[in-house]
Amino acid sequence: MATTADMRNGLIIKLDGNLYSVVEFGQNKTARAAAKVWAKLKGVDNNRSIEHTWNSGDNIFPVRVEKRNYQFLYKDEAGFNLMDNNSFEQIAINENLIEHPELYKDGQECFVVFNTETEVPMGVELPANVILKVTYSEPGVKGDTATRAMKAATVETGATVMVPLFVDTDELIRIDSKTGNYIERVKQ
Fold first, then answer.
1. Of 82, 101, 162, 188, which one has the fewest beta carbons inside 10 Å?
2. What is the pLDDT of residues 174-184, one digit of tens each?
3. Domain range spanning residue 148?
4. Which of 17, 45, 60 is the last residue before a domain boundary?
């Protein structure tokens, strides 16, 4: 059992029979009333996003989750097929549980988040950043580099990422897996 003092971003809690992940939280305190704790919650087992408020010190019900190393194998009509790196068991995960599905390539390492009470997969996450090869990019025009101009580039997974003008075809780039944004060029 935990209280609202244990609230943090990324915490998964059970509320009204559903599982929610804490996206953002804060505290409101007024001179006359008791402090209130508010949180923006994103549904883990549903696609709802809600806001909820508790009195300071109220009980919350966190769910214990575990991240396990998996490897992305391929995508088919069953979903994304992943292999456990320890037991070599394969599972198929529905695309709506995948974070940024356009960034997955064959052999990509990922983490499957399991609810330890039910052993049900709750989602799949990539490492903090991924390295992908640019397969197509328009050439940058000399003289356009005075500002931080960006152009669209297609990477090996088929995703389109906005990159600076100096990035060319066949270069490796690092992409933030949480936002899908370009970070930097990678030396080969």
1. 188
2. 999 888 899 99
3. 129-186
4. 60
Amino acid at site 114: F
Instruction: Give me the half-sphere count of Cα atoms (radius 13 Å) on the Cβ side of residue 35.
Output: 10
What 3-state class would DSSP assign to 165?
Answer: coil
Task: With CA atoms as reference, report the closest residue to 67 among 12, 9, 112.
Answer: 112
C-alpha distance across the termini of the chain, in Å: 50
Q: 89-148 pLDDT, tens per residue?
A: 999 998 888 888 899 999 999 999 898 888 888 888 889 899 999 999 988 766 655 667
d(CA 156, CA 133): 6
Report if pTM > 0.70. yes
CATH, residue 98: 2.40.50.140
- CATH code (residue 56): 2.30.30.30
